[in-house]
């Protein structure tokens, strides 16, 4: 009897995921660009862009902003770049470039750049935009309309990550899929404070909400700064919203397994609160939900349970593949992506145990 219950666990867990009311696998929370919208008056918005050695992409980012509407104010905080980031940014009209000061101890680089830039924001709404994010025409006005319609003070969109290689296609949609499982959008978007999440690449927020939430000094050393900021905004009594968008395009190329590993490993163990117990628990859960179904397939007595688990697993991934216009056959490789992400999480933990909390943009944050 105990063995049968254990064999049923993967199927029950995957079927339960499909049936829970908050539907973490769904892509229903999204905002898309309206390319046919007329010119929008965006004079109430200031864009704040932290940029460190982004000469290869900052031009495309600023070009995307120029196409959004009229009156938009843009501030680029050049975070000690050693390339032509500042020169390229300054060549665009209505863009103000601020030279960032050296990074103080105890601050994360992006947050220090935003802290310096916020003093120059004098509009009621602030757009926090990563330097490698390009907005498609009509996206910002669509997001503003959505913010007003939903009566939210803080809205963010998960960027569409570039997929140019096998590793990109295998791992990047799965990255968004796992993020939604960890931070169910529908719960985060509710008034409940159980879950608070955001996508730091594109955040549109009331300036007052950011100020009252203590941005950015109160989260100065946060490595998962977007979710930390969303938590503080919620705790300050404001409402947040997070969704997907194909109109928020990441310009950063990954292409290789190593580059994706570096992106994930810099914060994966942080996500677990640097807890070895949680890491072991996650490892056990992954072994049950992704590995055990294949073991069950090998036995005549349990192959049906293994098949049910695998089918439910792949069904949960299909909406994400459809949303990003990918072949549904990629769902067959979801277990492989799970193994790789688990390995990256262990790699992140090993880095931490060796004294490196995170490494990004030529900066190392020690434990």
Automatic annotation (TrEMBL):
SUPFAM superfamilies under this entry? Answer: Nucleotide-diphospho-sugar transferases (SSF53448)
Glycosyltransferase 2-like domain location, by residue?
A: 46-210
UniProt keyword terms in alphabetical order: Membrane, Transmembrane, Transmembrane helix
Q: Which InterPro entries match?
A: Glyco_trans_2-like (IPR001173), Nucleotide-diphossugar_trans (IPR029044)
What Pfam families is this protein classified in?
Glycos_transf_2 (PF00535)
Chain ranges passing through the membrane: 278-298, 305-324, 330-353
**Name used for this protein in its record:** Glycosyltransferase
């Amino acid at each position: 009897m105990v063995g049968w219950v254990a064999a049923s666990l993967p199927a029950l867990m995957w079927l339960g995921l499909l049936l829970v009311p908050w539907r973490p696998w769904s892509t229903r929370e999204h905002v898309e660009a309206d390319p046919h919208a007329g010119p929008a008056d965006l004079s109430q918005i200031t864009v704040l862009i932290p940029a460190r050695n982004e000469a290869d992409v900052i031009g495309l980012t600023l070009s995307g902003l120029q196409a959004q509407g009229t009156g938009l104010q843009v501030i680029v905080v050049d975070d000690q770049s050693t390339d032509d980031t500042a020169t390229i940014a300054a060549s665009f009209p209505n863009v103000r470039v601020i030279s960032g000061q050296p990074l103080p101890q105890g601050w994360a680089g992006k947050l220090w750049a935003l802290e310096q830039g916020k003093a120059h924001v004098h509009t009621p709404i602030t757009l926090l935009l990563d330097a490698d994010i390009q907005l498609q025409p009509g996206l910002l006005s669509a997001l503003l309309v959505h913010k007003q319609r939903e009566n939210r003070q803080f809205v963010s969109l998960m960027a569409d990550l570039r997929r140019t290689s096998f590793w990109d296609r295998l791992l990047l949609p799965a990255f968004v899929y796992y993020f939604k499982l960890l931070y169910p959008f529908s719960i985060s978007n509710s008034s409940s404070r159980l879950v608070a999440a955001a996508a730091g690449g594109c955040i549109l927020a009331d300036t007052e909400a950011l100020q009252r939430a203590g941005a950015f000094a109160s989260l100065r050393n946060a490595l998962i700064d977007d979710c930390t900021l969303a938590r503080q905004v919620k705790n300050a009594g404001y409402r947040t919203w997070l969704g997907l968008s194909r109109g928020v395009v990441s310009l950063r190329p990954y292409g290789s397994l190593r580059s994706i590993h570096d992106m994930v490993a810099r914060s994966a163990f942080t996500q677990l609160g640097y807890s070895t117990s949680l890491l072991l628990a996650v490892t056990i859960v992954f072994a049950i939900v992704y590995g055990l179904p294949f073991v069950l397939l090998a036995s005549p007595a349990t192959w049906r349970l293994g098949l049910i688990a695998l089918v439910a697993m792949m069904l949960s991934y299909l909406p994400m593949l459809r949303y990003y216009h990918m072949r549904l056959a990629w769902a067959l490789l979801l277990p492989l992506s799970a193994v790789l992400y688990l390995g990256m999480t262990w790699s992140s933990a090993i880095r931490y145990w060796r004294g490196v909390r995170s490494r990004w943009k030529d900066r190392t944050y020690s434990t």
